[in-house]
Every structure is written in C-alpha cells, then in structure tokens.
Amino acid sequence: MSYASPDTISAAVAAPLTLTGTSDVVQLTVLGDAAQTADIVKVQTSAAADVLTVSKGGRVLTSASEAFPVSIGQHSVHASGHIAFGAGATAPTNANYAMRGGGSSTLVNGPSSVTLLVADATKVTVAAALATIEVNTYLAGKVLSGYAESVLAVAATPRAVTSLETGGTFTNEGAAALQVFDLPTAVAGLRYTFVVQDADGIQINAAAADTIRVGAAVSAAAGLVSSTNIGAVVTIVAVNATEWLATTVINTWTVT
User: Fold this and answer.
1) Rounded distance, CA 126 to CA 120, Å?
2) Which of 187, 245, 251, 256 is nearest to 215 (CA)?
3) Strand partners of residue 193
4) End-to-end CA distance of the chain
5) How far apart are CA 20 and CA 28, in angstroms?
6) Measured between alpha carbons, how far is 79 from 63 in angstroms, rounded to an integer?
7) Phi, psi torsion values for 191, nearest 5 degrees
8) Residue 119: alpha-carbon gap to chain centroid
9) How far apart are CA 208 and CA 49, in angstroms?
10) Which of these ranges, 161-170, 181-190, 207-216, has the smallest mean pLDDT?
11) pLDDT tens digit string along 3-41?
12) Contact at 8 Å (CB) between 134 and 164?
C-alpha cells in the first residue's frame, strides 16, 4: 500500500497500524521532498503535541514532558538538557553532568572548567580506601581554592611520603619514638608541611642526591632535617629535581 504526499493515514485506517516485514530488508523508508525544509518525521499525542520529531538533517528532538527523554543504556539526557551518566533516576538539575551509581568516571579532553557542586558540609567525599586525590601536572601554576588540605597523624616509622600527598601536612601525634619521614625524589612543585606535636620529634630524610635547605643551612645529599621542639613547623617545597627549600620555619630545625 502506498500513499501520495501529503496523504494522511487517519481513523479511516483500522488502528493499530502494524507494518510487518516479510524479508530482511529496510521495512520503512520516508523520503523527503527535494525542497524539504520541514521536519521529515513527526510523532504526536492525540492532542497534537509533539512527542518526537526528526529534522530533514536527521536531528532527533524529544518531548521535555519526560524526565529523561533520551536514554542510551544507563546514560541519559535530562529534560533540562543536562547529561546523566550511570544507573539511577537522579535528575542532574544543578549540573551539566551528573555521575550516578558506582565505579569511576573520567573526563577525557573535557571542558576547560569542571565544577563539583555538592553540599557545603561535605564538598567532595572520597572512599575511605582512597587516601589521595590525584591532580595532574596540567594544573601546574594554577590556583586551587576552597579545599582543606589533608592532615596526617602518623605513628608508624619510617613513613614514605609520596608525590600524590603533595600539599599535605604530617605530624607525629601519638608517636612513641622519633618519627621518620622519607621524602620522594624531588620534583619541582611538590610541597609538604611537618608539625612536631610530640617531644619524640620528627626527622625528614631527603632521597638520594637530594638536599634540603633551611635558611642558610643546606643538608648533605640524601641529608635530613629534624626537630624535637613541640610546635616546630617546617614547610618544604621542591624547587627543582634535586633541591628542597623551606618556605616556612617555626622554632628550631637541625640540618644535617
């Protein structure tokens, strides 16, 4: 059966209308006019409200009456135009992207700015098994604001400090003996703060070939700085691939 454009299939045709294929071929083809500018396909409700339209160029538009009018697997587009990734029914009404469910999410070649919008009391929650959030080197020279740096009270000694812990503060709270921290190999920009809270003291060891400078005093290669003065604080920054420089010094630190 064929119809000449713009014939209308209406109530004169018994409903429901079913197209049944009898061979493995394309079952329905809609050919637009040579001068087609209007939508080429339109699906409407009984009240003539558009539910789905296909433009002459192939763009598919759906009705915003559905909370998630477009779904691909577990991912969907909310009626607001925002995109939700993962399983669940959470509507991403306050963000351009919403990550739902478990697993990890990665933005590859993403936008120049990504905002995490969550409750002020929480900000960002990281699973207990994950000790750090890694920020890649593309952020070098940029400013991160509005976040709390980690403060780690360590009683196990020696303690290897990692590059992923840059920006963190380490104390010897609860220590029963001298607390030793082994720095990673210096990489320009790494920064750590050490606070003496127990009289057993803190010792900070540089990696092989690295030195630590506190004021005019410079350690030997693979040298160290230490203090047993409660309240002593030192913040050290790697200024190149072999040198650590103290940018904040409170109380007395011995350089060896």
Assistant:
1) 15
2) 245
3) 169, 235
4) 95
5) 10
6) 8
7) -145, 135
8) 16
9) 73
10) 161-170
11) 555 555 554 555 567 778 888 888 888 888 889 999 998
12) yes
Amino acid at 112: S
| Structure tokens belonging to residue 170 | 């380490």
**Where do the structural domains in the chain lie, given as residue ranges?**
150-255
Closest CA to 146 of 120, 165, 111: 120
CA distance 177 to 41: 78
Closest CA to 227 of 193, 190, 179, 161: 179
If one counts every other C-beta atom within 10 angstroms of the C-beta of residue 65, the result is 11
The total number of residues written for the chain in this structure: 256
CATH code at 150-255: 2.60.120.640
**What pTM was estimated for this model as a whole?**
0.50
- Integer Cα distance of 176 and 157 in angstroms: 10
Structure tokens at 98: 């919403």
54: amino acid identity, one letter: V
β-strand partners of 151: 169
Q: Which two three-digit tokens encode residue 106?
A: 């990665």
